[in-house]
From TrEMBL:
Taxon lineage: Eukaryota, Sar, Stramenopiles, Ochrophyta, Bacillariophyta
Keyword Manganese recorded: no
Statement: the UniProt record of this protein carries the keyword Zinc: yes
GO molecular function, one term: zinc ion binding
Alphabetical list of InterPro entries matching this protein: Znf_MYND
Listed Basic residues bias regions: 1-13
Disordered, as annotated region: 1-20
Keywords for this protein: Metal-binding, Zinc, Zinc-finger
Domain MYND-type intervals: 70-110
Protein name: MYND-type domain-containing protein
Length: 403
């Protein structure tokens, strides 16, 4: 048994260490804790009182929680409470649950919601998976957004929704241009557009509650995360190639010679690539796309994505004037790489992703990227919203685009 003198000596050392540690300025949030700097300071304090060094704790990534949106208020990643009766509604807190029960209709729908959610989910997945049907008939099931709620979506995932999404992307990757030149109008449909704008869109509930509309300005990073994790080998690659192919449909000679079809297919490309800007404005979505393993993997994936865009961007740059209305698609093909590079810097401290080099931009194209696309992309990441006209003019002015 240690003597009283030795025990007091150890207690004194411990008290000195605790006092030294208490003087360190460390954020209460452990995800903001700068491990190397703080531990070095702590080791200096330990050395001063004769104690051994400790190894620095690896810095944690501040990842968003993996929860669905609240079915009461629509708040993202906050549905931590589940209705125990139906298992099909999720809430951020007791007040939202009570309000949704009393005023949101859940009291009446609860007894049958689970069965109805399962039925909707099963039908939706079956239709999306039906490869024998033309594309338009496959996606008609999404017309009224049946999987907006967290419950139906959860059951749809159980029924194989992620495989259905992958199958849809694969159709566009391999034949979206051919389908749009088909004589049968049931084939002139882009599955990728429907998947991204219906299943992957965010603010599904909050916009209905606060604005009474289906408009949105965000993606649901949790849903994107689920899909990518379910197809970790090539889920992103198939989705990315499908998006690139879909952006070229309006350039096809048969499409571009028909004004109405050209306009519709241009809008299709615009919808898809606007969604990609929202995707890389989302921290959750950017994490699951870029932070797969380590810095090397982040660099490799970002480089691959941007390099894949090069031949498609060249087609846009050489297209007949006026086909790409206001050069909107070309602008997206500059802004998205800028956002990918920005998120690599922000999330993984990878600074070597250079879209100018990867896309081989020169002259006016390089200037447009640096003065227009890059500042707009970085602003969108900061604000989580696309810039309106006034904001855009301010961005261009600060970037020196008017000089």
């Amino acid at each position: 048994m240690p003597s009283s003198k030795k025990k007091k000596s150890k207690q004194k050392k411990a008290a000195n260490v605790a006092a030294a540690a208490s003087n360190l300025s460390v954020n209460d949030d452990p995800y903001e804790f700068d491990g190397e700097i703080a531990v070095e300071q702590l080791n200096n304090a330990r050395a001063a009182v004769g104690l051994n060094r400790v190894d620095p704790r690896p810095k944690k990534v501040d990842r968003l929680p993996d929860y669905p949106a609240c079915d009461g208020c629509g708040s993202e990643y906050s549905g931590t409470m589940e209705c125990t009766s139906c298992g099909s509604a999720f809430y951020c807190g007791r007040s939202c649950q009570v309000n949704h029960w009393k005023n949101g209709g859940h009291k009446d729908e609860c007894p049958t919601l689970k069965e109805r959610s399962q039925s909707i989910a099963k039908t939706t997945v079956e239709k999306l998976m039906d490869e024998s049907s033309p594309p338009l008939l496959r996606v008609q099931v999404l017309h009224d957004d049946p999987l907006d709620g967290s419950g139906p979506y959860k059951f749809a995932v159980d029924y194989g929704l992620h495989d259905a999404i992958y199958s849809a992307f694969l159709v566009d990757k391999e034949g979206v241009v051919e389908n749009h030149t088909n004589e049968n109008p049931l084939y002139r449909c882009c599955l990728t557009q429907w998947i991204m704008q219906s299943l992957f869109r965010g603010e599904r509930i909050s916009r209905q509650i606060h604005h009474g509309s289906n408009s949105f300005g965000k993606v649901d990073g949790g849903r994107i995360l689920g899909y990518l994790h379910s197809h970790s080998d090539d889920g992103l690659q198939v989705w990315w190639k499908a998006s690139l192919e879909s952006a070229m449909v309006f350039l096809h000679s048969k499409i571009s010679s028909t004004p109405d079809e050209s306009f519709r297919c241009h809008q299709m490309a615009r919808d898809i690539w606007a969604m990609w800007t929202h995707t890389f404005a989302s921290k959750r979505a950017s994490e699951c796309i870029l932070l797969t393993h380590d810095k090397a993997a982040c660099l490799e994936r970002a480089t691959w994505m941007i390099k894949q865009m090069k031949p498609y961007l060249s087609k846009l740059q050489s297209a007949r004037e006026g086909l790409d209305r206001n050069e909107v698609i070309q602008a997206y093909f500059n802004q998205v790489p800028a956002m990918i590079a920005a998120q690599c810097r922000e999330l993984a401290n990878v600074t070597s992703v250079d879209p100018v080099k990867l896309l081989k931009l020169r002259g006016l194209d390089k200037k447009m990227y640096e003065n227009i696309a890059k500042p707009h992309g970085e602003d969108m990441i900061r604000r989580k919203r696309a810039a309106d006209t006034a904001r855009s003019r301010d961005i261009l002015k600060r970037a020196g685009a008017f000089d």
